[in-house]
Design brief:
binds 4-amino-1,4-dioxobutan-2-aminium adenosine-5'-monophosphate; OB fold (Dihydrolipoamide Acetyltransferase, E2P); alpha+beta; five-stranded mixed β-barrel; binds magnesium ion; 15 strands; elongated; 2 domains; 14 helices
């Protein structure tokens, strides 16, 4: 169906005085004695196109005026009183009618209600703006790495290992529950892969394999976490960006992470001014200034040990006790980034006992060369580390954690054959999107959120 994108009609005067064909869904309509008006949106822009109908010229368009209907309009593009162009309809074709039980009748609906209609909430302004920012952000991430010589690799989604070693893996199986098998081992032996398999929580381990040949790589795909966390920041399926860089130590990868975040946020500022204006008005006052400040200023870097001192001296009553060795909770992270630094903060050198087995052990014997990037309003958006490259140290800690060395033979081989310093990080796309849009719940920055007890 040949037609012109509403974005193109609204963005210049080239169509003024010309006959145009546009398609879209009716967002609002109003009828008066001689004239009727409707606003349509085709998803190419946040703005709606006004269609003006002279009732002495056209009739039989009642159904096409209903909110939610899909229509095709042919008419002349003329200057509108609000500035820009509108269309004087000559012909209106009803593509798909929309009865009055269409759920999106009101101007504003609660997010809770919208989550019950994921297939229709995409037609709201919030999702229109969010999905466009998400798309621009994703492309900017690819551009950032591609322009710097990183190779995009596709790591497997079906895996036999649990990268983070935390037992939060979704099982993958082709055989259901059965009492036929004498043991768990026997059950897995009879399954599709002949062993236990699951959905990948992270592409890192395979990313390291690729980086130890290609030097600089990144992944961009879904990761799955079966953790029972019913929060505004956790989903069971999220999009994960994981660069891995050979011959890079912790300060090098921190530099890349900061530069990447700044570069992609800058691109969103340039390409999505209308969307950011919308989020500024409806979600977070000061959003654009926050993003501009992020682009222009250095992020803070804070030792974990200092973070603990700051938290202890804060005089704040935290729900979770603060002691050296504790994992930082959301309340701690938010205090540091929102109240103390008021900007993104890298917390570096965490206690080794609260972090993953693969992180490089520092010479103090207590900490690892790892960092989390915390941002105001969201908390952790990046988990990052230099990797342990010493075969013996790695084996020792894996044994301490009762890990099956046989399962990690490939990973250990990398430390045997040409081991080299390397580092990488994981960025959660949805968490970053929450920060960039000011949307407060991760369920509202993804088309179909998967959370505990919820899938459709
Ligand atoms: O901190 P995480 O668990 O780190 C890793 O997976 C490493 N293997 C990354 C690496 O070094 N290559 O996860 C990284 C990021 C988090 O900071 C967060 O942004 C996001 O992934 N993330 C989630 N986002 C939404 N829902 C969840 N359940 C998430 N779990 C992690
Ligand atoms: Mg983490």
């Amino acid at each position: 169906m040949k037609h012109i994108d509403i974005k193109d009609i609204l963005s210049g005067s080239q169509y003024q005085g010309k006959e145009v064909t546009v398609c879209g869904w009716v967002r609002t309509s109003r009828d008066s004695k001689n004239m009727a008006f409707m606003e349509i949106n085709d998803g190419t822009t946040l703005k709606h196109l006004q269609v003006v109908i002279d009732k002495s010229q056209l009739s039989g368009f009642d159904e096409a005026m209903r909110v939610g209907a899909a229509v095709k309009v042919v008419g002349e593009a003329v200057p509108s009183r609000q500035g820009g162009l509108e269309v004087n309809a000559k012909e209106i074709v009803l593509l798909g009618g929309c009865p009055t039980d269409y759920p999106l009748q009101k101007k504003r609906h609660s997010f809770e209600f919208l989550r019950t209609i994921p297939h229709l909430r995409v037609r709201t302004n919030t999702f229109n703006a969010m999905l466009r920012v998400r798309s621009v952000l994703s492309f900017a991430i690819h551009r950032y790495f591609q322009e710097r010589g990183f190779v995009y690799v596709h790591t497997p989604i079906l895996t036999a290992n649990d990268c983070e070693g935390a037992g939060e893996v979704f099982k993958v199986t082709t055989i259901g529950y059965s009492t036929e098998y004498k043991s768990e081992e026997e059950y897995y032996e009879n399954d599709f892969f002949g062993k236990r398999a699951g959905l990948s929580v992270s592409g890192q381990l395979e990313g390291e394999v690729a980086a130890m040949a290609m030097g600089k790589i990144y992944t961009f795909g879904p990761s799955f976490r079966a953790e029972n966390s019913n929060t505004t920041r956790h989903v069971a399926e999220f999009w994960h960006i994981e660069p891995e860089v050979a011959f890079a130590e912790l300060p090098d990868i921190i530099e890349i992470a900061e530069d990447m975040i700044k570069s992609i946020v800058k691109e969103v500022l340039e390409k999505c001014p209308a969307e950011l204006e919308f989020f500024e008005n409806f979600f977070e006052q000061g959003l654009k200034d926050k993003l501009r400040n992020l682009v222009e200023n250095d992020f803070a870097v804070l030792e974990y040990t200092e973070a603990i001192e700051i938290l202890k001296k804060s005089g704040k009553k935290f729900e979770y006790l603060v002691e050296w060795g504790c994992d930082l909770q959301t309340e701690h992270e938010r205090y540091i980034t929102e109240e103390v630094f008021k900007k993104p903060v890298f917390i570096v050198n965490y206690p080794k006992d609260i972090k993953a087995f693969y992180m490089k052990q520092n010479s103090d014997g207590k900490t690892v060369a790892a960092t989390d990037l915390l941002v105001p309003g969201v908390g952790e958006i990046i988990g990052c580390s230099e990797r342990e490259t010493d075969y013996d140290k790695l084996v020792k800690i894996m044994k301490e954690r009762n890990m099956d060395l046989e399962e990690y033979r490939d990973y250990l081989d990398l430390r045997k054959f040409g081991s080299a310093p390397h580092s990488g990080f994981g960025l959660g796309l949805e968490r970053l999107l929450m920060y960039v849009t000011g949307i407060g719940n991760i369920r509202d920055v993804i088309l179909y959120p998967r959370t505990v007890g919820n899938i459709r």
